[in-house]
Amino acid sequence: MTTFQLEKHVNYVKSLDKKSDFDSVVMEHLRMSGAYWGLTALDLMHSLNDMDGEEIAAWILKCQHDCGGFGGNIGHDPHILYTLSAVQILALFDKLSVVDADKIAKYISGLQREDGSFAGDEWGEIDTRFTYTAVSCLSLLKRLDSINVEKATDFLVRCRNFDGGFGCTPGAESHAGQIFCCVGALAILGALHHVDRDLLGWWLCERQVKAGGLNGRPEKLPDVCYSWWVLSSLIIIDRAHWISKEKLRDFILNCQDQDRGGISDAPDDAVDVFHTFFGVGGLSLLEYPGLKSIDPAYALPVDVIDRVFYGQKS
Amino acid sequence: MTNDNWVPFNERPDWDDIEPVPQDDGPHPVVPISYTEHFREVMDYFRAILAKDERSLRALQLTAEVISLNSANYTVWHFRRLVLEALDYDLEEESIFLETIAEMNYKNYQFWQHRRWVAQKRASVAAPDELKYTEVVFNDDSKNYHAWSHRQWVLLNLGGWEGELEYCSKLLSQDIYNNSAWNQRYFVITKDPSRGGLQAMLESEVQYTLLAIRQAPSNESPWRYLRGLFKDDKLNLLTRNDVITVCLEQLAEEESSVHALNLLLDLMASGLVTGRGGEQCFRKPEGCKVISEGLNQGAASVTPQSHKRYVKGFYGRRCMNVD
Ligand SMILES: [Zn+2]
């Protein structure tokens, strides 16, 4: 049986530091999220101490704008997605105190619309991804009281479909990534009673294909990142026992680059940091030995979440 | 990526006055970036224009160059919109620009967001163009999530509902498994203001769906759609002989037909008395297995201890407490 190449994956993620190919060029604007994926994967593999938290925090602060939001890199416009990534990285390093939580909360609450939804930035694109982002970020900062939680919840409920799943806007097709965002946000808001667990659980467990991997919608191909979106949602609604965990574990393990480390979207494809994070995260949800436990709603290690909310030092 | 006729900016006279600005990645970047020369130069000039906030025609052309190199860079799209507004630019021209770069951007959030921005400004005259455009995308990828999302936005905001149900039928006749088309169908019957809502559409939709189920019984989409039709009136479903007949028919043919069993089971839980030969099917071993799994609400959950917090509502509002 294939085993998990922990050491190689740690080296792969660290090597991104020195990488100089075209992929990293097109990643420039989302460097903040790239850093979150890589650093969280390292933490799950017990290797975050190898990274310089001071230096990373200093860089993050340079990405913050006067409005309170963060860009994906120095000189890039603020966006809610990179604001969450920035806060998540600071939480990993126990450095949330270096930012002004009220200022960030003001930026995020300014993106909430009359109907409770959230825009991603000043240009007004609406998507339940941004509701999740806002809710998760404000919760980590303990500033959920800065938005209208009632209306935010109402909007999520309006995005619930006849099949039990959720889409990006009311009426949009159910999609595993959007389901994670809506279910995760509802979990953080303590509003999971709006989810029909059996109906949604049925939809989610049907995402497992014969080969063991999970897809994101009916009749689509399995992909490692859906191991995260689907499995975390199943765990949150307590229906993870409706899929075969062994088959899913084997699917993820088969997507490893056995020689150079890293995990790809599907067997024999090229690896990237995004799928490496979601592969490691998926295995962590499956309680794979040697990995830290990850929180299914916040997508951060459980010990980090406990430290944020209960002040427990790991 | 590099085009042979491309002239570097430092050799273009009309860019003489601009001092390029390199990317500042900090002293020891976390994910350092190395650039091909061409890309680096274009980006350096873009940063310079951005710093000057120069909203000119040459700035517009420069953003087009940046987009052709890296269309996922959201900052350049933002700036392009500022320039378009400042120049009061012809938005039909902008639609044409979007056509030229469309093919490589079918899955790019920025591209679709920009398209929506342009369509919103052009208002209802844009509706036919936008609907037709998404159809071109669907010819290639009939489940493109961005395109479906765009199409729904167009229908809700600019109109054009007239042919939508027929369009869904057309896509489903090409591929009955297309879940996106099933979803769009539900969208039409519940949101098209001229159709009178779910109740008015119920009868014809039930017939359409039962036909689709008979055509491909293992297709999960019509089974879910069928439930959706009775979403607000589950008791009505209990009285539908045609629906129950299809379930029993499928079970007679394939005794482990999970979709048929699932629906019947739900109906039984809602009070259906199976005096129609249903018990017969349920006595078969395969059927019993699925049913016992389904009925066993307390099935041994293997949620890890650390994740139980969600099951028990561990977080909830307590995260709202301000320090
Ligand atoms: Zn993926």
TrEMBL record, chain A:
Cofactor note: Binds 1 zinc ion per subunit.
Protein origin, superkingdom: Eukaryota
Cofactor(s) required, per the database record: Zn(2+)
Prenyltransferase alpha-alpha toroid domain segment(s): 4-299
Family annotation (Pfam families): Prenyltrans (PF00432)
Catalysis: reaction(s): geranylgeranyl diphosphate + L-cysteinyl-[protein] = S-geranylgeranyl-L-cysteinyl-[protein] + diphosphate
Key words of the record: Metal-binding, Prenyltransferase, Repeat, Transferase, Zinc
GO biological process, one term: root development
Single annotated GO MF: Rab geranylgeranyltransferase activity
InterPro entries, alphabetized: PGGT1B-like (IPR045089), Prenyltrans (IPR001330), Ptb1 (IPR026873), Terpenoid_cyclase/PrenylTrfase (IPR008930)
EC number: 2.5.1.60
An example Gene Ontology CC term for this record: Rab-protein geranylgeranyltransferase complex
Subunit structure: Heterotrimer composed of the alpha subunit RGTA, the beta subunit RGTB and REP; within this trimer, RGTA and RGTB form the catalytic component, while REP mediates peptide substrate binding.
Family the entry assigns: Belongs to the protein prenyltransferase subunit beta family.
General function of this protein: Catalyzes the transfer of a geranylgeranyl moiety from geranylgeranyl diphosphate to both cysteines of proteins with the C-terminal sequence -XXCC, -XCXC and -CCXX.
Protein's name in the database: Geranylgeranyl transferase type-2 subunit beta
TrEMBL record, chain B:
Stated family: Belongs to the protein prenyltransferase subunit alpha family.
Transmembrane stretches, start-end: none
GO molecular function, one term: CAAX-protein geranylgeranyltransferase activity
Domain of life: Eukaryota
The name this protein goes by in its record: Protein farnesyltransferase/geranylgeranyltransferase type-1 subunit alpha
Cofactor: Mg(2+)
Enzyme Commission numbers on file: 2.5.1.58, 2.5.1.59
InterPro entries, A to Z: Prenyl_trans_a
PANTHER family: PROTEIN FARNESYLTRANSFERASE ALPHA SUBUNIT/RAB GERANYLGERANYL TRANSFERASE ALPHA SUBUNIT, PROTEIN FARNESYLTRANSFERASE_GERANYLGERANYLTRANSFERASE TYPE-1 SUBUNIT ALPHA
Signal peptide: none
Record keywords, A-Z: Magnesium, Prenyltransferase, Repeat, Transferase
A family per Pfam: PPTA
Gene3D superfamilies: Protein prenylyltransferase
Top EC category: transferase
Species annotation: Riccia fluitans
